[in-house]
# Entry
Amino acid sequence: MSVITIERKVLEKNDELARQNRTLFASRNIFSINIVSSPGAGKTSLVEKTLEQLKGKLNVAVVEGDVQTDFDAQRVAKYGVPVVQIVTNGGCHLEAKLVQDALQNLDLTNIQLLVIENVGNLVCPANYDLGEEMKVVVASTTEGDDKPLKYPGMFRNASVLIINKTDLLPYLPCKIDELKRNALSINPSLIIFETSCTTGYGVAEWCTWLTGKVFQHKGTK
Ligand code: MG
Ligand code: ZN
# Structure
């Protein structure tokens, strides 16, 4: 019983801080996404391809979350956007407080889109609201088509599914239609994109949709 209580208190505290982050984003008219996946699915590659595509169209800032190292922030910095790295030192998910602290080190002037790349983990990031507008879950074809059934919480809480590494499909047992079916059985309102961050396939379609969302969001303010 005590374990459940502690967990709930942690999540309640997190939700309060997430609300503060959400208020900050709203006051600055920033659209924010929280990218989640298991390690190695291609989150950082997707961020890189997205930055490439959105260059000159949207002002983007990035928060990178990793258990250790600032390798991903270094990769993102090459695109000339404001980026800050959160190192969780073993922590397996980002929390709203960590994002709040990271934002202190980020110049948000004129930023329209904030991309938060979570720690690679399909379990607890599902439960930690960071104040984002939506969660984007990346599933790679190398992980098989049953991922959504094994980690339903993440697929239920996400708004978008990006199926990455489609270029590898000929070499894998993964059936993309089965993967989509499984994902939609968990969450029928998931919006699905197929990408290969190696070849660039599908990235434009995702970025066009995302840009539309950012402007649509601005329009409602
Ligand atoms: Mg990464
Ligand atoms: Zn965790």
Notes: The chain has a mean pLDDT of 96.
